[in-house]
Design goal:
Distance between the termini of chain B: 25 Å
Structural class of chain A: alpha+beta
Oligomer: heterodimer
Number of helices of chain A: 9
Strand content of chain A: 15-25%
Shape of chain A: globular
Helix content of chain A: 25-40%
Strand content of chain B: 25-35%
Shape of chain B: extended
Mean pLDDT of chain A: 92
Distance between the termini of chain A: 48 Å
Chain lengths: 359, 278
């Protein structure tokens, strides 16, 4: 993809200047960026540290592939203002977003009132999130646009829980699974999560392939991406005929089935202690307002790894650290996004289940 | 290290030593769940009110003391808070005794006492003084709403707190009276010989729970067996099972059946945050 003369190309040219702070002009908007030399990822071994300038450059370069996956989805971000080794916090609500950012008012049962949620649907907003150290982008699995497969659902998200439950935001596009290995390398400190290592990743990959095969026998095609940390994320795109409660039930049923099939690989345990040695099959994110780290989103790993969509045929050849904010833009420019068609590959779970009954 | 179950301080004359308590023992039994034998569903324990004919959430429960049959007096959390117990946050040492003066029947549970922040020095001082003197301290401590008698004894670099039963918690009535039984010297000699043969130092490493090990093997074998019988035709049925299960879950959702409460509880964001990051 040529970036000469495009908006992305212009941003890359501007960021290339050596100043630690500047005001970017993006799509006609002014966006001040600061501390561009700040190290966000420490690097490891021969890999040099990555700065905020590297992050902004990355976000700009992958934006043509990333933005379509964020479109129409309320989101929150995990911010690491001092880099991945520093403190982090979730930001869900945005009181004074810049004028170029799209927001949507949604009822929140936690605050028992309406709140503003951000939707990242343009380049300036994406770069603004990068400027704030918003490394991890967490879009909802449902979106505000009812076309084409949920026409007739309302777009009233505020006022009450009942209104929100009736709205299109209560109908997710995906059933999602987070496969998270709890096999420790032995190098972790007390109470730390397991770190990435070959053995655990291989087991996770084998389990993902089995799940793909299982669902394939039902006629369902599921998508896979690296989580960017230790595990894999699986997304099953579905027509929006089921609300979150039903989707959660479907996901839980598949989880329990996987547990019965592979009891020594799979765990559904909530207690971390009891997960040890197995792969946590997490279906709990299938709920309104919950999320997994977005496709192409950078994660908390010293090398700046990214959650990368993968072709099933490639899965046995890849390792999560192959995909960092340094390597991913070129891979995308070469091969494109294996998930580009995910929203047109939606499957009709309702019809499939009815057919089975009839047959 | 597990979480401290209690924190406060040891009070000893003019000295106060911040400490934390950790359980020193844990039961390693293999736990089973009670299922409905015909369908394999885990049975729920329900708090059922027969008067209102409804399930009762925790926040609607109260603790009642039955002072006469069917008559209760209710005690609230505030009532418990107001009880005059100095031992809630302090372990007050009241006497020093030799450990062997205490009969093992009194021992209830063992806890490790660890020094709180910047309390290593006074803690070490107390430890060494007890060790050198060969003494243990008698004290009181309130753990989980109960004031307990306890002793603090030095053991391999740590002070161990053993809770003790109160004398009135130990049953005195016994079924035997050996006073009238006659035993000859020869019989006693024989018993001595037998004992001497098996006399050796106590090595806890030699003793294992054979029952638990056998049970773990049995469970493993069952899981193993499950994998072995999984022949290709059986798999196909499994997949059909899944389709059936999915259909049932979708139908349940259509009827407006709520997802299981236990499953819902597990998605609380606050807990998730501490456990994992996506």
């Amino acid at each position: 993809m040529s970036q000469v003369g495009t908006e992305v190309g212009s941003v890359l040219d501007q960021i290339a200047a050596r100043q630690p702070r500047m005001v970017l002009t993006v799509e006609g908007h002014e966006l001040p960026v600061t501390n561009l030399e700040k190290i966000l990822w420490p690097g490891s071994g021969r890999s040099r540290p990555l700065t905020k300038r590297d992050l902004l450059r990355y976000l700009a370069r992958v934006s043509p592939w990333l933005l379509p996956h964020l479109a129409g989805r309320p989101m929150f971000a995990t911010r690491y203002p001092d880099g991945v080794t520093g403190k982090s916090f979730y930001q869900k609500h945005w009181d004074n977003p810049p004028e170029f950012a799209t927001t949507v008012t949604i009822y929140s049962s936690h605050t028992e009132g309406d709140s503003e949620y951000l939707i990242c649907d343009n380049l300036p907003t994406l770069l603004w999130l990068g400027q704030m150290g918003g490394l991890e982008l967490h879009p909802w699995f449902s979106r505000i646009d009812p076309t084409p497969d949920a026409s007739g659902r309302t777009r009233r998200f505020s006022g009450s829980e009942a209104a929100l439950k009736k709205s299109v935001l209560n109908y997710p596009d995906f059933v999602v699974f987070d496969l998270d290995p709890y096999q420790y390398s032995g190098r972790e400190g007390k109470g730390e999560e397991p770190e990435l290592h070959r053995k655990a990743f291989k087991r996770t990959r084998d389990l993902a392939l089995r799940i793909r095969e299982l669902l394939g026998r039902l006629g369902l095609e599921i998508f896979v991406k690296t989580s960017g940390r230790t595990g894999l994320h699986l997304y099953l795109p579905i027509l929006r005929k089921f609300d979150y409660d039903a989707v959660r039930g479907i996901a839980e049923t598949i989880g329990r089935h996987a547990l019965q099939e592979w009891p020594r690989e799979v765990t559904l345990e909530w207690s971390v202690k009891r997960r040890t040695g197995k792969i946590f099959f997490d279906y709990n994110q299938n709920a309104r307002g919950k999320s997994l780290a977005s496709i192409l989103c950078p994660r908390r790993h010293p090398l700046g790894t990214v959650s990368m969509p993968v072709e099933w045929e490639q899965l046995e050849r890849i390792y999560p650290t192959d995909f960092t904010i340094r390597t991913v833009p070129e891979i995308l420019e070469d091969r494109g996004d294996p998930w580009a068609g995910i929203l047109t590959a939606k499957q009709d779970l309702a019809e499939l289940l009815e057919q089975r009954t009839a047959g | 290290m597990p979480r401290a179950i209690w924190s406060g301080s040891i009070s000893f004359g003019m000295v106060s030593i911040p400490v934390k308590l950790f359980g020193a023992t844990e039961s390693r039994d293999i736990r089973f769940h009670l299922l409905h034998a015909t369908c394999g569903t885990k049975l729920q324990q329900r708090r059922w009110c027969p008067t209102d004919e409804t399930d009762v959430p925790w926040n609607e429960t109260a603790r009642g003391y039955e002072y006469s049959k069917g008559e209760y007096v209710i005690l609230t959390d505030e009532d418990f808070e107001r009880l005059p117990l100095p031992s809630k946050h302090t372990i007050e040492l009241s006497a020093f005794v030799e450990e062997r003066e205490i009969d093992p029947t009194f021992y209830e549970r063992s806890y490790y006492l660890e020094p709180g922040e910047r309390a290593e020095k006074p803690y070490a001082l107390l430890f060494r003084a007890l060790e050198k003197k060969g003494l243990s301290a008698i004290a009181s401590v309130t753990i989980r709403k109960k004031e307990q008698l306890c002793i603090l004894r030095p053991h391999e670099g740590t002070i161990i707190l053993e809770t003790l039963y109160y004398p009135d918690e130990i049953r005195l009535e016994r079924g035997v009276d050996l006073g009238s039984v006659k035993v000859s010297d020869r019989e006693l000699e024989m018993a001595f010989t037998l004992i001497d043969i098996l006399r050796k130092p106590f090595d806890p490493g030699e003793y294992r729970d054979h029952y638990r090990e056998a049970l773990a093997e049995l469970i493993e074998a069952k899981l193993e067996g499950k994998q072995v019988v999984k022949a290709p035709p059986a798999r196909e049925t499994k997949v059909l099972d899944l389709a059936d299960a999915l259909r049932r879950s979708v139908e349940a959702a259509k009827k407006g059946a709520k997802p299981k409460p236990a499953a819902r509880e597990r998605t609380r964001p606050a807990r998730r945050r501490t456990r994992k990051v996506g």
